[in-house]
């Protein structure tokens, strides 16, 4: 009864148009009152939810992503990748995917990655005959790989909620699946571009490879410094986020001189506002999770779901469908906070590796970021392209299927995710 009220009130709040954090808070407070709990449990659990050392990395990575976005790193990476790929039918589609993958190794956020690449790539792609719908859909899809490729904000949240999966293990586990997801997107991107002749009639001078590499070297070094420092133990994942910020400020203000003191202040304000929203959702979702766990709601639901499916593959299919649908409407961090208390007991009961499970969940949520109707990355790129999201549908479906194929590979062959962290001694 209480479980039904908790979930029912939350869904009703979302349907009524309440912000996510408000809906979680209303449902949690109402259920705790019904169960006779002291309402001091609410502020106590909000504080406990955000007062965790690994979560300090989230505002830092958000800030680092914004600094690199506005310092001109994306423009230089585009020139360098274009110099490598060359000019041919569909070449800009390949450039968009590869640049998104490189930036994903810096920002850790799909929407931020998509916004940065769209601002640079969309004008060029449209000028060379690529439809706005195709360009916006491809950039949104390739940008979503940022939450799979380390460093990933989503992995940090997952590790906080699932202590058995450490951040270094998750970062290592996400590397190959993230690259496979990006490579899967290249297949429909090239096939569609060649079929329709996108960029065929446009001839442009290929940027010089040497000069482009020198211009882009500071951006290319960022993921090397972040991941190299983590691997060698020079700094922790939280400290890596601070290093990324310091490095980004140095590149933007000293090397490229594209960020002024006034510009840096504006970046700090924007990053602070976005971080506050994310941490508020995490704090209130912690109350929601605590209420569900304390009242035994999630354990009962998990046992019921395990009882429904005797087959491991049917359970996997059910969970993946649930995540794909949820990803169409909510962002990755919110879904982790809402669904992990329910899904982790199922994963444990099934004997699944929790690091592998985290990567599987994250790939699902990456797909949701560009799957209509409420795809956040697709909303951003469509807005930058000046089109309605419906113009992307005919193209996006092929990208969803392509990344779904990459997800299937990772599920069927778990070692794609587990080999590297095992080799590095994180498992």
From TrEMBL:
**GO cellular component terms given for this protein:** plasma membrane
Q: Which UniProt keywords apply?
A: Cell inner membrane, Cell membrane, Membrane, Transmembrane, Transmembrane helix, Transport
* UniProt superkingdom: Bacteria
Q: How does this chain sit within the bilayer?
A: Multi-pass membrane protein
Q: Name one Pfam family in it.
A: DctM
Q: In which compartments does the protein localize?
A: Cell inner membrane
The transmembrane residues are 49-68, 80-106, 137-158, 170-192, 213-234, 240-259, 271-293, 313-342, 354-375, 395-420
Outline the extent of the TRAP C4-dicarboxylate transport system permease DctM subunit domain: 8-416
Manganese is among the record's keywords: no
Per the record's keyword annotation, is 4Fe-4S included, yes or no?
Answer: no
GO terms for molecular function, please?
Answer: transmembrane transporter activity
Record NCBIfam families: dctM
Q: Which family does it belong to?
A: Belongs to the TRAP transporter large permease family.
* Main function: Part of the tripartite ATP-independent periplasmic (TRAP) transport system.
Give the record's subunit note. Answer: The complex comprises the extracytoplasmic solute receptor protein and the two transmembrane proteins.
Identification of the protein by name: TRAP transporter large permease protein
Species of origin reads Thauera humireducens
